[in-house]
Design goal:
The chain has about 130 residues and is an all-alpha fold. It has a single domain (about 20-130), classed as 3 helical TM bundles of succinate and fumarate reductases, CATH 1.20.1300. The chain is built from five helices and no strands. Helix 2 packs antiparallel against helix 3, helix 2 crosses helix 4 (about 70-95) and helix 4 (about 70-95) runs antiparallel to helix 5. The termini are far apart.
Amino acid sequence: MSKTSIHANRPLSPHLQIYKPIPTMVMSIVHRITGSALYVGTLLVAWWLIAAATNEEYFNFVNSIYGSWIGRLVLLGYTWALIHHMIGGIRHLIWDTGRGLEKETTTKMAWGSLILSVALTILIWVAAFTIA
């Protein structure tokens, strides 16, 4: 048998455009994205801590950036990414025990992690503005 006949009969792997996105798959992708976003957010927290350790003028400068509307939007996104990534990690820990692996359960957990992360983010921000 020649090489060409072996390769001609092999099936092609489906591309991502073939798959229908399901909640579990989307939440897995979002979990990876939020994990990457946390690197940038952690740098922002480190910048704030360094400013706090430096002097009052520099600290006020950093606080003015974080207090602007775009700074607050970035901090809101960081809060959501942190909460969502944590809930996704808990979801994976549950799966590591062998529980919740049925299709219906994984779909409910995916939607639940999204809803819970948004709700907790709103709750944290409402509490922060209430205290301030």
